[in-house]
């Protein structure tokens, strides 16, 4: 008689303890690297680290696959949006400059440093960036010098046994806000390549079109001109985006068809909100995380009726949740960071 081994029941939470406090984090998108994350340290000095970790689904343990040095903490990390696994295995980081790396185990290699300010010893640090999903040769960065820069990447093909280096050039740079720009994100509207939005210290959300950069649209302005720190587009319905103001306990949901008037306010957090992530597979679910140790999932189907309570809440007992990511190819899993820990939670 054949013996059947019963597969072990998958856990609901997996935890990884890093050697240092964590801030930035991103899920790998490649189908052959399912539970792989890139983590960035937050140490208040020049020497910082980026670590690539992955979950062994048989042992249920995370392990570090590659660790490399990074100057200053990374303000953001992103893997190349390559859901088919056909492009070079790249990730990018922002900090003093935009850097593109080629992932490998154990040696991740720096491919290029993209610096738009060639004639100065000083740089204006980058607060964030976004990698275009429709055209992975486009990366947009936001900076404290009031500008956004759109970079064109040449990722190079594998020629025989030699892999070309990655290089990049400035496609366009624009003054996006009156003060520092804190976040940038491409929209899936209109083909998904040319539209992007930014938020900044002037308290506004502005929308741009790469085909018509001579003007922008102000989608929202904070009534008190409080700086807006984060911006996230709905992954399924490009009419909606979410933003969060500095030190605010609420997340504002906007509809680009109704500028300047929030369609919903999600305000169950009891301390500052640090992160927002829309569901990759649903237009009506969004996750928020904050200093109150909580990650909350909301169903916003009822808009414009008020959204009173989240449908799911998770409390990280030991620390303030400073980062949240919803895996694009892993819609059942959310990743959070607090203190030195990264956790993935089944939702």
TrEMBL record:
<comment type="pathway">
    <text>Protein modification; protein ubiquitination.</text>
</comment>
<keyword id="KW-0677">Repeat</keyword>
<dbReference type="GO" id="GO:0005634">
    <property type="term" value="C:nucleus"/>
</dbReference>
<feature type="repeat" description="WD">
    <location>
        <begin position="266"/>
        <end position="308"/>
    </location>
</feature>
<dbReference type="InterPro" id="IPR036322">
    <property type="entry name" value="WD40_repeat_dom_sf"/>
</dbReference>
<keyword id="KW-0833">Ubl conjugation pathway</keyword>
<dbReference type="InterPro" id="IPR015943">
    <property type="entry name" value="WD40/YVTN_repeat-like_dom_sf"/>
</dbReference>
<dbReference type="InterPro" id="IPR045159">
    <property type="entry name" value="DCAF7-like"/>
</dbReference>
<keyword id="KW-0217">Developmental protein</keyword>
<keyword id="KW-0539">Nucleus</keyword>
<keyword id="KW-0963">Cytoplasm</keyword>
<keyword id="KW-0853">WD repeat</keyword>
<protein>
    <recommendedName>
        <fullName>DDB1- and CUL4-associated factor 7</fullName>
    </recommendedName>
</protein>
<dbReference type="InterPro" id="IPR019775">
    <property type="entry name" value="WD40_repeat_CS"/>
</dbReference>
<comment type="similarity">
    <text>Belongs to the WD repeat DCAF7 family.</text>
</comment>
<dbReference type="InterPro" id="IPR001680">
    <property type="entry name" value="WD40_rpt"/>
</dbReference>
<dbReference type="GO" id="GO:0005737">
    <property type="term" value="C:cytoplasm"/>
</dbReference>
<dbReference type="Pfam" id="PF00400">
    <property type="entry name" value="WD40"/>
</dbReference>
